[in-house]
Structure formats: C-alpha cells, structure tokens
Amino acid sequence: xxxxxxxxxxxxxxxxxxxxxxxxxxxxxxxxxxxxxxxxxxxxxxxxxxxxxxxxxxxxxxxxxxxxxxxxxxxxxxxxxxxxxxxxxxxxxxxxxxxxxxxxxxxxxxxxxxxxxxxxxxxxxxxxxxxxxxxxxxxxxxxxxxxxxxxxxxxxxxxxxxxxxxxxxxxxxxxxxxxxxxxxxxxxxxxxxxxxxxxxxxxxxxxxxxxxxxxxxxxxxxxxxxxxxxxxxxxxxxxxxxxxxxxxx
Length: 249
Fold this sequence. Notes:
The chain is α/β, with parallel strands linked by helices. The chain has a single domain (2-239), classed as Spore Coat Polysaccharide Biosynthesis Protein SpsA, Chain A. The protein is built from 8 helices and 9 strands. The strands form 2 sheets. It has a 7-stranded mixed β-sheet, with helices on both faces. Strands 6-9 form a two-stranded parallel sheet. Helix 1 (16-30) runs parallel beside helix 2 and helix 5 (134-151) runs parallel beside helix 8 (220-239). The longest helix is centred in the C-terminal third of the chain and has 20 residues, at 220-239. The radius of gyration is 17 Å and the shape is globular. The mean pLDDT is 91.
C-alpha cells in the first residue's frame, strides 16, 4: 500500500525545506505500516523552489520527489499529478503544515482500515483544535453556511488543506473537476458525494501561525466573492450538465 503526501507550492522557498524535512522526519520516526512518499508539486514557481526540491530528492531518494507543473493553481497541480499517480492513496497538505502531523494517521487509516474513499480534515468539528484570527474563522463559517445552502451538503469544512482519497476513485471524478485554484477542494468533495463515495470528516489540530514569518496568501474579501460565484456556477453545472458531461460516472 503506497501513500503519497503531496505538497503543492507556489514560491515557497522560505519554508519549503524546513517543512519537507519536518514531514520526512515525522514519517520516518513513526514507522507507518504502509509505504509512503513525499511529493513536492512545484506549481509555476519562479523562486528557488525547484533547486531546493532537487537537493532534497538527491539527499533522500524516492522518499522525497517532486513534479514541476507549469500551469498556475493548486487545484490544477493536484489534478494533474493525482490523475497520473501510481500510488494507492493520494493526499495533500498545505506547505505551512497548518494541520498537525499527528493527524496523519487519522487521515489515512479510515481509507486503509475502514473502507472509506475520501477523508477530509475539518476545523469545525467539536473535537477540532484551532488557532486562527476571528476574521478568518468568521469567513470560513460563512463560506460553509453558503455552500450548504447552495449545494445542499452537510459537511462542516470544505476548504481545509488536509485531504486523502483513493487514487482510483479520484480518477473516476477527475474529469468533473474544473477549478484550478482553491475551489478544487469543494468540487472534489461534491463530486465524490454525487458519485456515492464513502466520505469521512475528521477533526484536526489546526494553527494558522505555525510559521509566523509567512504571510497568508488569502485575501478574504476577494476570495469570498469568488467562492460565492463558484458555488453558484457549480450548482448550475449540477442542475444543467452539458451534454456528455454527466456529474456522475
């Protein structure tokens, strides 16, 4: 059983090496009962991310690898790589490791041991532990509320950067995932639901300040408007699928 931990990055030379080595050290010390690899997805980066990734790969062999993807967008990078991955399970986490690494087994074991197809981290469940600003918390709650109304789901957190899916299942729905940026997560969950995949939400320990020197790339006002527009577009796609473009496989 091979699990790939994917780290999509855009110009993250500031924290790239530290985060990758922290994840590598954690996985090595835990001695998981499954095989694993760390995959750095270099997403249209123009800084030294490629050189850092090459160095890490040369030092640690196949345990740390990388893929250079020229097109912009986290969702695009994940879709391209996951669609051709040979791993049994593909997962991703944000490069700032905002979710505690102690949640890794909570993410992977439900797929390996309990037959789930998709596992999603949630910052909104009762057992979740979060450290974030009031504004960020309010925006997440608002987005979840709007997405529930527009898309009719009952998930508590669509956008947490901590997810894992059976690779074969992802390839079934990949053609339906159109967004190449942050909305990828919502499409991943909704199309998994529409195709009756077995989905589990898990509580996570999440902190937006694990790397205080790194500025967030989230613009709340701009991104909130885009999310609402994308929710409406997705709802219309589901209600009125283009001929030959069924949302179910």
